[in-house]
Amino acid sequence: MKGGKLIIFSAPSGSGKTTIVRHLLAQEDLNLAFSISATSRPRRGKEKHGEHYYFMTLSEFKKHIKNEDFLEWEEVYRDNFYGTLKKEVERLWAEGKHVIFDIDVVGGLRIKKKFPDQTLAVFVKPPSVDELKIRLKKRSTESDEKINMRIAKASVELATAPQFDKIIKNYDLDVALQEAHDLVAEFLQEH
């Protein structure tokens, strides 16, 4: 596999990485396309197959693992697998796009390790764990138990920040959006 560049955004849930990635996708000068992840978890709310995720049954997901169809995959929570299909990245590269990922820290670092020279790995740091909890509660999409699981995981994820190429502190969204754009634009200009 070789093609365009890979831009990874990883962070604990509620850090603002999805908002940043959506903003970057809207910037035509960057020529980015979103890598849709595969998952074995059930759909939430108005999520659509092939737009938000490629939804699979647990057995379908495990079959793809066995066939080595993934660039990376991870069991993020028990029986909740997430992964990046190789054919998804190849499809976007074939369209002449650079690929941007909104991905968990383990998956992001795995891609960086496989493609060190063509990957920019960015960690989005929230103001605090307390602020994360407030943001997750505001979403009203998950139970308190799920939110507490995400908060516990956030502490572990925050410890991985130094392994990323760049860290963006998302204390002020407008500043974070500009910083993300500048980082990505600069990386894409490098050969």
Give a nutshell description of this structure.
The chain contains 7 helices and 9 strands, in the order E-H-E-E-E-H-E-E-H-E-H-E-H-H-E-H. It has helices at residues 17-25, 58-66, 86-94, 105-114, 129-139, 144-158, 173-189; strands at residues 6-10, 32-34, 38-39, 54-55, 70-77, 80-85, 98-102, 119-125, 166-169.
String of helices and strands:
EHEEEHEEHEHEHHEH
Record the strand order, biggest sheet: 2-7-1-8-9
pLDDT below 50 for ≥5 consecutive residues: which ranges?
Answer: none
Major beta sheet summary: 5 strands, parallel
Helix run count: 7
Which range best describes the helical content: under 10%, 10-25%, 25-40%, 40-55%, 55-70% or over 70%? Answer: 40-55%
Distance between the termini: 18 Å
What can you tell me about this protein's structure?
With 191 residues, the chain is an alpha/beta fold. 42% of the residues lie in helices and 22% in strands. The protein has seven helices and nine strands; from the N terminus they run E-H-E-E-E-H-E-E-H-E-H-E-H-H-E-H. The chain has helices at residues 17-25, 58-66, 86-94, 105-114, 129-139, 144-158, 173-189, and strands at residues 6-10, 32-34, 38-39, 54-55, 70-77, 80-85, 98-102, 119-125, 166-169. A hairpin with a 2-residue loop joins strand 5 and strand 6. The two termini are 18 Å apart.
Keywords summarizing the entry:
single chain, alpha/beta, 191 residues, 22% strand, Rossmann fold, 7 helices
Question: Can you lay out the helices and strands and say which pair or pack?
Answer:
Elements: E1 6-10, H1 17-25, E2 32-34, E3 38-39, E4 54-55, H2 58-66, E5 70-77, E6 80-85, H3 86-94, E7 98-102, H4 105-114, E8 119-125, H5 129-139, H6 144-158, E9 166-169, H7 173-189
Parallel strand pairs: 1-7, 1-8, 2-7, 3-4, 8-9
Antiparallel strand pairs: 3-6, 5-6
